[in-house]
Specification:
It contains 2 helices and no strands. It has one domain. The protein starts with a helix and ends with a helix. The protein is mainly α and 81 residues long. The longest helix has 46 residues. Helices cover 89% and strands 0% of the residues.
Length: 81
């Protein structure tokens, strides 16, 4: 393999990585939006009272996942792409 072929292959790999990173960012953003919507719904429901234990557990897990995903998205945006 010549030096030019290696350079071209590296460019292709970088472009593919950039596209995958973009897709990943979109998926993470969509997931953050969905979790955040569920968290906001729960917070509204809890103000009305009558929240069940499973809803509290789902809220706690969802809020933690939301915060971890936000952190991951920030890291992705600072990294590649």
């Amino acid at each position: 393999m010549t030096e030019d072929e290696v350079i071209e292959l590296a460019r292709i790999n970088k472009a593919e990585l950039w596209l995958e990173n973009r897709k990943l960012k979109k998926y993470v953003k969509d997931l953050i939006y969905a979790i955040n919507a569920a968290v906001r719904w729960f917070e509204g429901e809890s103000e009305l009272g009558g929240v069940q234990r499973w809803q509290i557990e789902a809220y706690t897990g969802g809020k933690a996942a939301y915060l971890r995903l936000k952190k991951a998205l920030t890291a992705l945006e600072k990294g590649v792409g």
